[in-house]
Amino acid sequence: MGAMLYTVNTINTNVIKSLGKSNIYFVVQFFKRLLGIMLIIFSIRYGIEAMLWSIVAVYYISFFINGYVSGKLIGYGVWRQVKDAGIYYLLAIIAGVITYCAFSFINIELSNLAQILLQITVYAFSYLSVSYILKLEGFMTYQEVVVEFLMKRKK
Hints:
mainly alpha, 2 domains
Protein backbone atom coordinates (compact mmCIF):
# COMPACT_ATOMS: atom_id res chain seq x y z
CA MET A 1 0.00 0.00 0.00
CA GLY A 2 2.80 2.39 0.77
CA ALA A 3 4.52 1.68 -2.51
CA MET A 4 1.52 3.11 -4.33
CA LEU A 5 2.86 6.52 -3.29
CA TYR A 6 6.47 5.84 -4.21
CA THR A 7 6.28 7.50 -7.63
CA VAL A 8 4.46 10.57 -6.33
CA ASN A 9 6.97 10.91 -3.49
CA THR A 10 9.83 10.65 -5.97
CA ILE A 11 8.30 13.29 -8.22
CA ASN A 12 7.78 15.65 -5.29
CA THR A 13 11.36 15.25 -4.08
CA ASN A 14 12.66 15.71 -7.64
CA VAL A 15 10.71 18.98 -7.85
CA ILE A 16 12.50 20.22 -4.74
CA LYS A 17 15.89 19.16 -6.11
CA SER A 18 15.31 20.50 -9.62
CA LEU A 19 14.47 23.94 -8.26
CA GLY A 20 17.86 24.04 -6.59
CA LYS A 21 16.47 23.86 -3.07
CA SER A 22 19.01 21.35 -1.79
CA ASN A 23 18.91 22.84 1.70
CA ILE A 24 15.16 22.23 1.93
CA TYR A 25 15.60 18.79 0.40
CA PHE A 26 18.23 17.88 2.99
CA VAL A 27 16.09 19.01 5.94
CA VAL A 28 12.98 17.23 4.61
CA GLN A 29 14.88 14.00 3.94
CA PHE A 30 16.58 14.14 7.33
CA PHE A 31 13.30 14.45 9.24
CA LYS A 32 11.57 11.79 7.12
CA ARG A 33 14.42 9.34 7.73
CA LEU A 34 14.46 10.16 11.44
CA LEU A 35 10.69 9.63 11.64
CA GLY A 36 10.98 6.34 9.72
CA ILE A 37 13.70 5.02 12.01
CA MET A 38 11.73 6.04 15.10
CA LEU A 39 8.55 4.33 13.86
CA ILE A 40 10.39 1.14 12.95
CA ILE A 41 12.21 1.03 16.30
CA PHE A 42 8.92 1.64 18.12
CA SER A 43 7.16 -1.10 16.15
CA ILE A 44 9.89 -3.76 16.56
CA ARG A 45 8.42 -5.00 19.82
CA TYR A 46 5.07 -5.64 18.11
CA GLY A 47 6.45 -7.91 15.39
CA ILE A 48 7.16 -7.88 11.71
CA GLU A 49 3.62 -6.97 10.67
CA ALA A 50 3.69 -3.85 12.85
CA MET A 51 7.05 -2.94 11.33
CA LEU A 52 5.61 -3.28 7.84
CA TRP A 53 2.63 -1.09 8.74
CA SER A 54 5.02 1.50 10.17
CA ILE A 55 6.79 1.59 6.80
CA VAL A 56 3.42 2.14 5.10
CA ALA A 57 2.76 4.99 7.56
CA VAL A 58 6.13 6.52 6.68
CA TYR A 59 5.22 6.49 2.97
CA TYR A 60 1.95 8.31 3.67
CA ILE A 61 3.54 10.83 6.03
CA SER A 62 6.31 11.38 3.45
CA PHE A 63 3.69 12.04 0.80
CA PHE A 64 2.11 14.80 2.88
CA ILE A 65 5.48 16.33 3.77
CA ASN A 66 6.83 16.17 0.20
CA GLY A 67 3.54 17.37 -1.25
CA TYR A 68 3.36 20.29 1.14
CA VAL A 69 6.91 21.43 0.40
CA SER A 70 6.67 21.02 -3.38
CA GLY A 71 3.22 22.64 -3.25
CA LYS A 72 4.73 25.72 -1.65
CA LEU A 73 7.41 25.82 -4.34
CA ILE A 74 5.30 25.23 -7.48
CA GLY A 75 1.70 25.79 -6.38
CA TYR A 76 0.62 22.17 -6.82
CA GLY A 77 0.03 20.98 -3.29
CA VAL A 78 -1.18 17.86 -1.58
CA TRP A 79 -4.89 18.47 -2.06
CA ARG A 80 -4.59 18.98 -5.84
CA GLN A 81 -2.36 15.92 -6.12
CA VAL A 82 -4.91 13.84 -4.21
CA LYS A 83 -7.73 15.23 -6.36
CA ASP A 84 -5.89 14.42 -9.59
CA ALA A 85 -4.58 10.97 -8.65
CA GLY A 86 -7.20 9.87 -6.12
CA ILE A 87 -9.50 8.25 -8.67
CA TYR A 88 -6.65 6.08 -9.96
CA TYR A 89 -5.68 5.16 -6.42
CA LEU A 90 -9.28 4.17 -5.69
CA LEU A 91 -9.43 2.27 -8.97
CA ALA A 92 -6.32 0.26 -8.02
CA ILE A 93 -7.96 -0.63 -4.69
CA ILE A 94 -11.20 -1.66 -6.43
CA ALA A 95 -9.32 -3.85 -8.92
CA GLY A 96 -7.39 -5.38 -6.02
CA VAL A 97 -10.60 -6.14 -4.13
CA ILE A 98 -12.16 -7.70 -7.25
CA THR A 99 -9.07 -9.88 -7.74
CA TYR A 100 -8.95 -10.86 -4.07
CA CYS A 101 -12.65 -11.76 -4.00
CA ALA A 102 -12.42 -13.71 -7.26
CA PHE A 103 -9.63 -15.89 -5.89
CA SER A 104 -11.13 -16.20 -2.41
CA PHE A 105 -14.26 -17.87 -3.75
CA ILE A 106 -12.64 -19.91 -6.51
CA ASN A 107 -10.65 -22.81 -5.16
CA ILE A 108 -8.64 -24.29 -8.00
CA GLU A 109 -5.32 -26.05 -7.68
CA LEU A 110 -2.69 -24.19 -9.67
CA SER A 111 1.04 -23.84 -9.42
CA ASN A 112 2.21 -20.64 -7.75
CA LEU A 113 3.39 -19.21 -11.06
CA ALA A 114 0.11 -20.00 -12.81
CA GLN A 115 -1.87 -18.51 -9.93
CA ILE A 116 0.17 -15.29 -9.97
CA LEU A 117 -0.17 -14.97 -13.75
CA LEU A 118 -3.93 -15.53 -13.53
CA GLN A 119 -4.25 -12.97 -10.71
CA ILE A 120 -2.28 -10.40 -12.72
CA THR A 121 -4.58 -11.03 -15.68
CA VAL A 122 -7.75 -10.64 -13.57
CA TYR A 123 -6.34 -7.48 -11.95
CA ALA A 124 -5.38 -5.91 -15.29
CA PHE A 125 -8.74 -6.81 -16.82
CA SER A 126 -10.60 -5.36 -13.80
CA TYR A 127 -8.53 -2.16 -13.81
CA LEU A 128 -8.88 -1.57 -17.54
CA SER A 129 -12.59 -2.48 -17.58
CA VAL A 130 -13.48 -0.06 -14.79
CA SER A 131 -11.29 2.62 -16.43
CA TYR A 132 -13.16 2.11 -19.69
CA ILE A 133 -16.58 2.18 -18.02
CA LEU A 134 -15.72 5.41 -16.16
CA LYS A 135 -14.07 6.90 -19.28
CA LEU A 136 -11.08 8.03 -17.24
CA GLU A 137 -8.79 10.53 -18.95
CA GLY A 138 -5.69 8.43 -18.32
CA PHE A 139 -7.30 5.37 -19.87
CA MET A 140 -8.55 7.29 -22.88
CA THR A 141 -5.04 8.66 -23.48
CA TYR A 142 -3.59 5.16 -23.08
CA GLN A 143 -6.16 3.79 -25.52
CA GLU A 144 -5.30 6.46 -28.11
CA VAL A 145 -1.58 5.70 -27.83
CA VAL A 146 -2.14 1.95 -28.21
CA VAL A 147 -4.48 2.39 -31.20
CA GLU A 148 -2.01 4.78 -32.86
CA PHE A 149 0.83 2.32 -32.26
CA LEU A 150 -1.17 -0.56 -33.73
CA MET A 151 -2.14 1.52 -36.76
CA LYS A 152 1.52 2.37 -37.42
CA ARG A 153 2.48 -1.31 -37.18
CA LYS A 154 -0.13 -2.28 -39.78
CA LYS A 155 1.37 0.08 -42.36
